[in-house]
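Action item from last week, closing it out:
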Amino acid sequence: MRTNVYGELIYSEQDICDYYLTEPNTTLRKILIDSEIKFSDELLLEHIPEFITYKDSNLSIEEFDRTNQNSWFIPDEYKNMDIAKFVLDQCRNESELQRAGQELLLYQERDMFILLKYLKYLVDTMRQHNIVWGVGRGSSVASFVLFLLGVHKINSLYYELEIEEFLK
């Protein structure tokens, strides 16, 4: 098995055979396969309803990410929410409003509002199912917006962390 430049797993014929030897009752939904594989085994075909033949793409990583972000599972209530309004409503004073507004403009410039909506959905789902996640790690703690969404628990304003630390 190998990965392409986008981090997707590409299965060889041997990978698929090995998988079914170890997990015979499992059905894969969609897998990327090397373009030279031609299956004739009906047993394999009934367990893998949809093959996607992998071909090298000319998409940039940014185009690839944008294409895949449009196919993420996000319930309509999150997909249609005004994430900027939600974030700004979480602010308690003028300095928080200014910082959140500054960051939201940067997220908007990078066309990342869908990511913020997904993170809100993810945090709400984890809370609903009592799943514990970390306090915060790395440069993400410099984002006050992520703090307001509940992704991490480090208030970047309190610790005077600059947004540029997150954007590096």
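Closing note: The chain has two domains: 2-67, 76-167.
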